[in-house]
Amino acid sequence: MKQLDVRSAAHIDPTLDDLRIRPYGITDHDRVHRMSERLSSASLYTRFFSGTPRLPDHYVGLLDGLDHWDRDALVALDGDDIAGIAEYVRDKRRPWRADIAVLVTDPWQRRGLGSVLVGCLTELAGRRGVTEFDADVVLENRPAIRFVHHGWPAARSTAEGGSAHFRLPLAAMAATGTAAAATANTAVGAR
CA 33, CA 144: separation in Å to the nearest integer? Predict the structure, then answer.
């Protein structure tokens, strides 16, 4: 398995030399807990759709139980700290579809890391038979909604409560070049 050198894949601040992406592993448990220190209440709200002072223990437990097929996650590491996580969970009734979620620490937001993580996760999920992502985005999360429209220009949402629900075909993202740019000349290894 190769690790992705993120600087070659997106417009990321080059001052941090050791940012890399790899599958989540059980040794990341403590790193995920430490990640809370670099997440604002707004970032936690847009990911979990509710106020929470830190990453929920239940969420960390779900990450620890990944099967790396129907449920998988990639982490971006800045040294020994997690800068971002992107994950998918396959729909058991429709195994070609999966829910996707991304969480990027505040210092790394609006620097391209979320886009790179989604591109890598798209490639990984596609190799595992996933052809569509479902994404729910809090309506106040304008950067995430702009990202969806950039990667999937034809995407339309349905509003439900305070969120927008998108159905995102993986082939459409590949056609925009977003996934290809995020994985240029490298691959995240499948397990």
Answer: 23
- Rounded to the nearest 10°, the torsion over CA 149, 100, 120, 28 is 140
Neighbours of 172 (CB within 10 A): 16
Interatomic CA distance for residues 41 and 123, integer angstroms: 31
Q: What is the pTM of this model?
A: 0.81
| Closest CA relative to residue 29, chosen from 92, 93, 90, 73 | 73
Secondary structure letter of residue 138 according to DSSP: E
pLDDT tens readout for residues 102-138? 999 989 988 888 989 999 999 999 999 999 999 999 9
Condensed to tens digits (0 to 9), the pLDDT of residues 41-60 reads 888 888 887 777 878 889 89
CA dist 157 and 84 (Å) reads 25
Q: What whole-number distance in Å separates Cα of residue 175 and Cα of residue 51?
A: 36
